[in-house]
Amino acid sequence: MSHRFSRPGISERIPTSGRRLFGVTFLIGMLVSASYASSPTASPWVGRKVITKYQTPLVVGGRGADTDHAHLIYTVEKAQGRWLRLVTDQASGWVLASQVVPFERAIAFYTKEIRNSPRPSRAYVQRGLIWGDKGENDRAIADYTQAIRLDQSDAEAFERRAAAWMAKKEYDIALADLTDVIRLRPRDFKAYIDRGIAWDRKGDFDKAVADFTESIRHEPENPWAYNNRGNARRAKGEYDRAIADYGVALMLDSEFVLAYINRGLAWGSRKDYDRAIADEDQAIRLDPENTYALNNRAIFRERNGDYEGAVADFNEALRLDPKFQAARSGLALLLASCPDGKYRDGKRAVKLADQAYRSTRPEEPVFGSALAAAYAEAGDFERAVELQERAIQLTPISVERDQLRSRLDLYKVKKPYRQEPLR
């Protein structure tokens, strides 16, 4: 995860070293270059996915772009002379074509660099990044490990290997690597954030809060640390403190969509659905295609008794992302258990819930419970009991298991589940 702050007011232009600044030749050259760049077939580079060699920074406004030397996969938007304009959703700018490698050739490029270098630790790290992009985490880990053998002070190699272990859900090993990053870079606020996330994923929320707090001590104006600490506090049930953290994150960045989404979840946990909806509203205003905000708002509207609005939000989330199974399962549960019979449709609920349940492995107990409710609404109580018992077995939190058991009791006496309307 990278953490960058925008630098407003910088105008993009081709670097001076790429221009010809003399008389009429300059004017003609610019006119020809503009035409050349605007043609999608003018350069073999345009439209290709590329990386920059060893994370060469882009040039923006005549100077290096503030990308923290992040590893990014760019698309070539324009070509002008020796310069290429690269874009992603995180950064854009210019770089010399000689510093670019087509993404499909990146493994071969760094393999050659490894062969030709006497101590190729950096090339191993870079090749590991490409393996990670391809989802080959074991190969990425092998490359990072080789880089560490060559240079045990290479904090980036430890950091990248930790990310690969995190992707494999090997949180204890990731924590060990992140502790080495902090040993090598004790003032690096990002390292504390990363280790806090690992503690959070492992379920040790107290240690997560401690690391996020340490990150804030080193970088008090970084909204990500407050957002992540809010998440850990929300997981601990400290909803007021979580809401306060999200509030600070939003004071630091008023367009921080995730902080609005997460604060909405905290308000929802407090059953303050009006405020929860207001925060999800703001997230959707800032990012109209954010399916998580739409899904959350659907749930809060449902709990607030706005069933029509909830159905509309679930359907919009599925239109934007047909593979968003949480929205499919949520809509199925509403169609199966809505207190207002106008919105119940057992047959459609079974179809939606079954699609969500079958598409997700390992099993999600919430999806199984939604499918159980759908079968109960459709009159198949035997199947509903079977699925609900399975969901109870897979649910780790005792309070949630008790809620699921109350539904199971209904199915055993051949009664469908009905949600309690808030109003």
Question: Main traits of this protein?
Answer:
two-stranded antiparallel ribbon; 7 strands; five-stranded antiparallel β-sheet; 19 helices; 423 residues; Serine Threonine Protein Phosphatase 5, Tetratricopeptide repeat; alpha+beta
Please characterize this protein's 3D structure.
The protein is an alpha+beta fold and 423 residues long. Among the domains are: 72 residues, no CATH class; 135 residues, Tetratricopeptide repeat domain (Serine Threonine Protein Phosphatase 5, Tetratricopeptide repeat, Alpha Horseshoe). Helix 3 runs parallel beside helix 5, helix 6 runs antiparallel to helix 7 and helix 16 packs antiparallel against helix 17. The strands form two sheets. Strands 6-5-4-1-7 form a five-stranded antiparallel β-sheet, with helices on one face. A two-stranded antiparallel sheet has the order 2-3. It contains 19 helices and seven strands. It starts with 22 loop residues before the first helix and ends in an 11-residue tail after the last helix. It is elongated.
Task: Explain the layout of strands and helices.
Elements: H1 23-38, E1 49-52, E2 59-60, E3 63-64, E4 74-80, E5 83-87, E6 92-96, E7 100-102, H2 106-116, H3 121-133, H4 137-150, H5 155-167, H6 171-184, H7 189-202, H8 205-218, H9 223-235, H10 239-252, H11 257-269, H12 273-286, H13 291-303, H14 307-320, H15 325-337, H16 346-359, H17 365-377, H18 381-394, H19 398-412
Antiparallel strand pairs: 1-4, 1-7, 2-3, 4-5, 5-6
Helix pairs in contact: 2-3, 3-4, 3-5, 4-5, 5-6, 6-7, 7-8, 7-9, 8-9, 9-10, 9-11, 10-11, 11-12, 11-13, 12-13, 13-14, 13-15, 14-15, 15-16, 15-17, 16-17, 17-18, 18-19
